[in-house]
Amino acid sequence: MKKLFAWPKEIYIFWIVEFILGVELIGPLLLVFFQGWGGLNQTQTQSLQSWFTLCIFLLEIPTGVYGDVKGKKKSVLIGYAFTALGTFVYTLVPNIWIFALSEFIFALGIAFISGSEEAWMYDISKKYHLEDSFREITVTARTLNMIGMILAAGISIWASRIFSVQQLFRLGVIPNIIAIILLGLFVQGTNGFKKESLKPNYKDTMVEAFRILKNSLNLRKLVIYTGILASTSYFVIWLYQKALIVLSVPEDMLGVYRIALLVAEIALIKIAEKLFKKMSPQKVLTLIAVIVGLGFILGGVLHSIVGVFFVLVFAGGLGLQVSSLMSKEINMEISCEQRATVLSFVSMARRLMLTVFNPVVGLLVDTKGVFIAFTVLGVISLLAIFFKPKVISK
Fold first, then answer.
1. pTM over 0.85, yes/no
2. What is the pLDDT of residues 162-175, one digit of tens each?
3. Which domain holds residue 21?
4. Which terminus of the chain is less hemmed in, N or C, by CB atoms within 10 Å?
5. Which CATH number fits the domain that encloses residue 100?
6. What are the backbone angles phi and psi of residue 101, rounded to the nearest 5°?
């Protein structure tokens, strides 16, 4: 670990932005917002999320190419502007069609950010010869983001008694505006096209990015492995509140469980980071998949508060951090000029999985119950073991 004040200024700005973006108050009350204020059932809620991920799936490549050709910084700033707009539109009226419009605006924003922000951060790291420290940089960013979420979860326990869930959601506009200001003013843009004689071209950039993905077996396996675990653990966020409500936990206590999830994420991402230094990557990847899978299965079998804690700590605490933990290995397989586009391909694969999983899991919850859904997600998580790369350099 480098000394606290030994990092370049740009890295600190990225970290501050991640912390600020974490301070959004709606997280502990997502189910209350969608099903209480919005009037949706679980199938409608997950179908809405499927629409969201389908939109991102369709937008990932054009926005990723835009980031590589026009500039990653410009792409990211546009993305945060759209996410701020989407947040505001979502709170206008509780109507599923307004929600669908908002999800499209959100998707556009996330697509502009996805790939480009990570590529931008990696380019900055490479500029300062910090590629070997990139896992530490991304882990720190995620940790600060989760500390922000813990702060927000604590505030929301108090704020939910004063403000409506609609007002709490609308406050999410503020972190996005602050992110635009900080990144726009204090972090320089990077351009992968180093040679002035080389004119950026959308088609050539996309074709070369696809070639990189096609020719790298390691990259393809990493995409599938992280995609499976990122997709299954994603449902922790949407289902743990449902499970707690089934178990008669009061709504104003949901923030406490949100804090438990975030503390678990912070602890386990640090433990996993250390394991990568002490064990072979293949063993760590197997261990991660087993822990995530068993966390879900135990939650489904126990059908209790203790079971929900297994889901939060192991399936959520570790599974939700897989993409950050593997960011270094994925970026090492990609050349600078096509980084945002290839990362958009990677993200697109994950979104495709979620597009399929969302309505299926929602229907499963509504027909068979949330605890059966946990068990099914656990079995799917274990399948990731079969897709880990055979050779990964440390």
1. no
2. 889 999 999 999 99
3. 10-188+199-387
4. N
5. 1.20.1250.20
6. -60, -45
